[in-house]
Specification:
single chain, 98 residues, alpha+beta, four-stranded antiparallel β-sheet, 28% strand
Length: 98
């Protein structure tokens, strides 16, 4: 049972499209390395798990763009937390994926 889901959109402050994509790809690779269940969408990546772990992931998503050369980054994060459980990503979207 997942107690939390977050949606993360990372926008590194760089102008070159290729550099933006490379940085975002590194962020997604990091998310993949965490072992948490996630889905990449066109604007944001949704991740589900426990509150503490997801907050640590959100923090790390701030650091990666800076390490990759962006002078700053904007990150938009949505959090849904319910100690008794949240609807999973699959419960929310499987009906649309035919």
């Amino acid at each position: 049972m997942y107690t939390t889901s977050i949606a993360v959109q990372v926008l590194p402050d760089v102008t070159e499209t290729e550099k933006v994509l490379a940085i975002v790809d590194k962020v997604i690779a990091y998310i993949d390395s965490t072992g948490y269940h996630y889905v990449v969408g066109p604007f944001e990546t949704t991740i589900e798990g426990d509150l503490e772990g997801l907050m640590a992931i959100a923090k790390r998503c701030q650091e990666i763009p800076i390490e990759e050369g962006a002078p700053s980054t904007k990150t938009y994060i949505k959090v849904f937390h319910n100690p008794t459980g949240v609807l999973t990503i699959n419960e929310k979207i499987d009906k649309f994926n035919k």
